[in-house]
Amino acid sequence: MADLLVVGSVALDSVATPFGKVDDALGGSATYFSYAASFFTTVRLVATVGADFPETHVRLLAGRGVDVAGLQTTPGGRTFRWVGEYGYDLNEARTLDTQLNVLASFRPDLPAALRQVPYLFLANIDPELQLDVLRQMRVRPRLVALDTMNFWITSKRAALLRVLREVDVITINDAEARQLAGEPNLIRAARAIGALGPQVVVVKRGEYGALMLASEAFFVAPAYPLESVFDPTGAGDTFAGGFMGYLASREATDRASMRRAIVHGSVMASFTVEDFSLNRLTRLAPAEIEARVAAFHDLMRVENP
Amino acid sequence: MADLLVVGSVALDSVATPFGKVDDALGGSATYFSYAASFFTTVRLVATVGADFPETHVRLLAGRGVDVAGLQTTPGGRTFRWVGEYGYDLNEARTLDTQLNVLASFRPDLPAALRQVPYLFLANIDPELQLDVLRQMRVRPRLVALDTMNFWITSKRAALLRVLREVDVITINDAEARQLAGEPNLIRAARAIGALGPQVVVVKRGEYGALMLASEAFFVAPAYPLESVFDPTGAGDTFAGGFMGYLASREATDRASMRRAIVHGSVMASFTVEDFSLNRLTRLAPAEIEARVAAFHDLMRVENP
User: Fold this and answer.
1) N or C: at which end does chain B have fewer Cβ atoms within 10 angstroms?
2) Does B226 touch chain A (CB under 8 A)?
3) Global model pTM greater than 0.90
4) Is the residue at A293 inside a domain?
């Protein structure tokens, strides 16, 4: 079991879906990632929050064994906030408001102890910061994965391309994969992104699951079939947490493990979307994960005659 | 190897996609179905065409061993025509014109020899005709599958529900599954459709593959990843042809075979969309099918550690 470092955002989200709404609920890419990964390995979190960030949220993460020493509080600052809503097509979030607050001046400075963690996830933040974090690592991690979004693809393309050359894995959603590659066909887009650096390209397709290109081979996993999806916020970051958490727990980077990691990521995401914020994850028992992983394998199993 | 009977439409399609167009090209649900299934078993086709239907098309089907004795020509009649187009989102066809022509007065009358064929596919036609065909069977087939569409769900719902009570398998696309069930969640929609009669519900999801509910268990298969999709017309019927053709060839109806049948259906559909009309299928070698089936298995294979 190897340690896993994540650098990203911790947020307070206000989300409305057709099934309800929450205000200032715990959110953020690094939050979902850490919490999900904590079921598999020891997670070290580096992020920033404001003075308004509830202590209960910190205790929630610490309670799962997440190392929160790298969670810095900016005195007088306000926590990053995201306000969004979903219609019945839960695949598409509409952003109503983004207040960067303390995230605007976030300059991650890794504590010395974290500069040789073997598994690193650069959650969705400014690619210049992602590169800066990578530069701070004293030992090149065994596996570096990165997530990004349309905003950076448009506004910081050069920096994104630079950091992409140095990572092993990219996780990205389908629309953003097409945008990054400038290619409407998803298969060609994945290949084009692989040519930018990452040996492993993981495309997140929301309710349609995930597609992975690794060493020239494609792997396609469905989303776990759910009878009710409540709020998709955080599904992608939870997926990444399950994916990287599984790999770190096995100290693996091989292709077969990558496939099992996709299954674990998909399973973790399937829990997150069953409730607002991290609510479902906070009620999650390890046995439920194991049961759903087994069900997931059955879901895609084809036996030869 | 058991015989497979299909009753459905044979058409002349005019289709425009961003990649080209064809006029009065060979199409129709029973055509795609027969041609695809002919790679696996003996297919008996029952359909109707007009006097304008090119003899070369009949020879094409007969050349693949499809029994065309049940393809009746209406003297003086015109063949069913469909005119449609696709934008870059190839998942959605826009119908520009439908001329039923001889299909409007189609009353399938099964030759005596076909009234005991053990595998039956009721392609997308009026559910009253589908029920009538089923009534004509002297021996209840081992497996009866049916396809339908939004038009019948709206205009002939009672008849559709009646025939659904008597079939084993339904193949239906995702939007139509939601419509038939009156349920936006696809998993619940599949369960609701299963409760209407069919023990096996196969939901076709275009570029996202297929989902099957069989004996309470879900199976989810991706679409074969293609670098270029040229024209999706006929993909669903080709899928059904590969699915039913495989089952008939193995004389199987068990759940494991159903899963392999989904893979074969998906593989056959992946060829159809690579060119207009049946063009790709007419150039298809059995070895290509085998290779793509093997690749498809690899695409979804997860090995336990």
Assistant:
1) C
2) yes
3) yes
4) yes
* pLDDT tens digit sequence for A178-217: 999 999 999 999 999 999 999 999 999 999 999 999 988 9
What residues of B are in contact with residue A220 (Cβ under 8 Å)?
A: 209, 222, 225, 299-300
Distance CA B91, CA B267 (A): 17
- Euclidean distance between CA atoms A235 and B243, whole angstroms: 33
Using a CB-CB distance cutoff of 8 angstroms, which residues of chain A are in contact with residue B174? none
CB within 8 Å of chain A, chain B residues 84-123? 88
A256 interaction partners in chain B (CB closer than 8 Å)? 302-303, 305
Is B182 within 8 Å of chain A by CB?
no
A227·B299 Cβ contact <8 A? no
Q: Do B205 and A208 touch (CB under 8 A)?
A: yes
Q: Which residue of B has its CA nearest to A258?
A: B302
Which pLDDT tens digit goes with each residue over B18-60?
Answer: 999 999 999 999 999 999 999 999 999 999 999 999 999 999 9
The pLDDT of residue A39 is 98
| Stretch 46-85 of chain A: residues touching chain B, C-beta under 8 Å | none
Report the domain count for chain B. 1
Interface test with A, best of B17, B86, B174, B185 (most A CBs within 10 A): B185
Task: Determine, yes or no, domain membership for A304.
Answer: no
**What CATH number should be reported for the domain holding residue B158?**
3.40.1190.20
Tell me the residue range of the domain where B29 lies: 4-299
Whether residue A305 lies inside any domain: the answer is no
DSSP conformation letters of chain B: ---EEEE---EEEEEEETTEEEEEEEE-HHHHHHHHHTTTS-EEEEEEEETTS-HHHHHHHHHTT-EEEEEEEETT---EEEEEEE-S-TT-EEEEEEE-GGGGG------GGGTT-SEEEE-SS-HHHHHHHHHH-SS--SEEEEE--HHHHHHSHHHHHHHHTT-SEEEEEHHHHHHHHT-SSHHHHHHHHHTTS-SEEEEE-GGG-EEEEETTEEEEEPPPP-S-----TTHHHHHHHHHHHHHHHHT--SHHHHHHHHHHHHHHHHHHTTSSTTHHHHT--HHHHHHHHHHHHHHT-----
Which residues of B fall within a CB distance of 8 Å from A191? Answer: 227
Residue B304 in domain: no
